[in-house]
Amino acid sequence: MSLLSVKNLRVTFPSDHGPVEVVRGLSFDLGRERLGIVGESGSGKSMTGRAIMGLIATPGQVTADVLTFDGVDLRDLPETALRKLRGARMSMILQDPKFSLNPVIRIGPQIEEAMAVHGALTKRQRRARMLDALTAVRIDDPARVARLYPHEVSGGMGQRVMIAMMVVMEPALMIADEPTSALDVSVRGQVLDILDDLVKRRGMGLMLISHDLNMVSRWCDRILVMFQGAIVEEISAGQLYKAQHPYTRGLVASLPRIDESRDRLPVLDRTAL
Q1: Is 49 exposed, middle or buried (0-12, 13-18, 19+ CB in 10 A)?
Q2: pLDDT in tens, 38-50
Q3: What is the pTM of this model?
Q4: Which ranges of the chain does DSSP label H, i.e. alpha helix?
Q5: Is residue 117 part of a domain?
Q6: Which of 66, 81, 90, 156 fits a 20 to 30 Å CA distance from 257?
Q7: H-run or E-run covering 208
C-alpha cells in the first residue's frame, strides 16, 4: 500500500484573464522511498508539495480525484484534523528559513513547540530531544544555538535549524523543498545522510523537490520531471541521463560538466515542447 497516493491533482488561482492552473492533473504514488521532483522555477514543484500539506490559501483552489496519506483522505479533512497530522506524521521543509522561522521566538522553543503540541513528553524530554536534533544536523554547541533568535544565525545554519525542526518528530512523510540550497557542499551531504537515515531506519517516505539534477540522480530512487504544472516524465534516478522526453533531455544538456568542451551551454527550446 502506498504511503501517499495522488490522482489528478490540480491547483488553480484566479487572475484578470480567468483561472490559471499552476498544477495540472498530477498523478503519482509514493511509498517508503526517496522520490525526486525536478523542473525549472515555476513548473509547479513547490505548489505540489504545499497542496499535499494543505497549505494553499484562498483564493487558491485544490482539487483531486484521490489525495490520501496512509489511508486518510486529505481532500475534505477539517483544518483541526490536518493540524494533528502536520508536524507529527507529515512535515515540509520550506526553502527559505527567513520566512519560516518566527523572528521573535528563540530557536530552541520553536523546535520544542511541535513536541509540545503533538507529544506527551515532559519539558526535560523535549529539551533533550531538541538538542539531539540540532546535533544531528551538525550544529556545534547546540545549547548555545538553542538560545539564539533566527536573525542571529547564518542562512545555512537557519536551514539546518528548519531541518531539525521538521525531523524531530520523525514523521512518516517528509516533503523537502530545496532543503540543501543554503548549505555548503561539505554540509549538504551530511544533511542528506540524516534524511536518508530516516527513510531507511523509520521507513519514512521522502519527496525531494530540487533544481539539482546531479544530486537527485545520485540520491533518489525515482524522479518526476515537471514542466508547466504537469509531469512530463517519470524515470528511475539512475537512468536520468538516458531520459527520452525533450524537456528532460534539455535540462540534462544544460548542465555544465567538469570536463566541459562546449563553447556555449545549450538553451532549452520551450517552443518545441
Answers
A1: buried
A2: 988 889 999 999 9
A3: 0.87
A4: 45-53, 79-85, 107-118, 123-136, 142-146, 155-167, 185-202, 213-219, 246-253
A5: no
A6: 156
A7: strand 205-210
